[in-house]
Amino acid sequence: MNPRLRNFFLAFGIVAIVVMLCTFDVDYAELVDKLKRAGAWFPAIVGIWAVVYFFNAWAFQIIVNNGAHDGRRLSFARAYKLTVSGFAFSYTTPFGFGGGPYRVLELNALVGTSRAASSVVLYSMMHILSHICLWASSVVLFICIHTVDAGLWVLFALFAAVCAVLVYFFYVGYRNGMVVKLFRLLTHIPLLKRWSVRIYEKNADTFAQIDSQIADLHSRGRRFYSALFFEYVARVVNALEYYFILNAMSLDVSFFDSILVLAFSSLFSNMLFFLPMQLGAREGGLAIIVNRLAIPGVFGLYASFFTRIRELVWIVIGVSLVKVGNKNITKEVCSSKE
Asked: 134-182: per-residue pLDDT in tens?
């Protein structure tokens, strides 16, 4: 990536962190009190995300290195760095827009523009698909361990129908590619027609290459399902965050219930993905599932507090990594061309 662009991302990240700190509605005394009450559980709440990002990075590396016959391969260390930094910028921008461009720009020097773009698109699709798999499996889990009334059966039936449509959409997108079709669709939308036509005509060949690479990953079943498996494992490991928070509050709740808490909170936050850090959406999902699981309502407040602190810590780490290890990229590119 151009050093100026990298400095721009760094500056943007620093400004975003300052804004979040200034708008964090917790005074210093309350912050210290809650951290003291959490005790040794707080490092576990923050640290478990090192494991979550490990599986995210593994899936990302598989996707980027798919079909890498030219020797230009992404190392796991760089995949981990781009994963943490990419999510940091996604957390701090509306629609989660920032992480994708950052990853493409960083990957461009190593694997080329079309492969970088297709890899980022593929990973975003895989990340969303793993969420859908988590939501679907959580419905099954809820039915197995909790009583389901008539209203919930209707809700779950509607949810199953939506999941089926989404899975079919992703299946078609993976099998045939979706970038070209998406831009063709945009050319029929009045407000976006002129912009989308101009972008499509300028990048038609690149979009076709991206679709070809997307379809290629789907044709390699082992790589495709390995990436999906690691993304799904990351979601399950993520549930440990809520399990640790529940233990910090001395609440006797099973790990399975922690998975349900994660699933419902992530469902709501992804429904309102346009909000930076999903402000308010996660809390709404937590309130609903906490009520259903008969968990004390105060849990929602504590969970919201600790997840915000955890996000801030990892955003700081991710933004800091923007300036780390960039000299080695030149060596990696040179060695791959030899």
From this structure: 888 888 888 888 777 777 788 778 778 877 887 777 777 777 777 777 7
Give the pLDDT score at 291: 63
pLDDT tens digits, one per residue of 4-24? 777 777 787 787 777 776 766
Pinpoint the alpha helices (H) of the chain.
3-23, 28-38, 41-64, 76-91, 99-111, 113-145, 150-176, 179-186, 193-219, 221-248, 255-271, 281-292, 298-320, 327-337
Let me know: does 90 contact 319? Beta carbons within 8 Å.
no
**Which has the closest alpha carbon to 61: 223, 188, 172?**
223
Q: pTM to 2 decimals?
A: 0.82
Scan for tokens 């498996």, then name that residue: 229
Tell me the C-alpha distance between 52 and 285, whole Å: 21
3-state secondary structure of 115: helix
Q: How confident is the model at residue 240 (pLDDT cuts 50, 70, 90)?
A: very high
d(CA 221, CA 158): 30
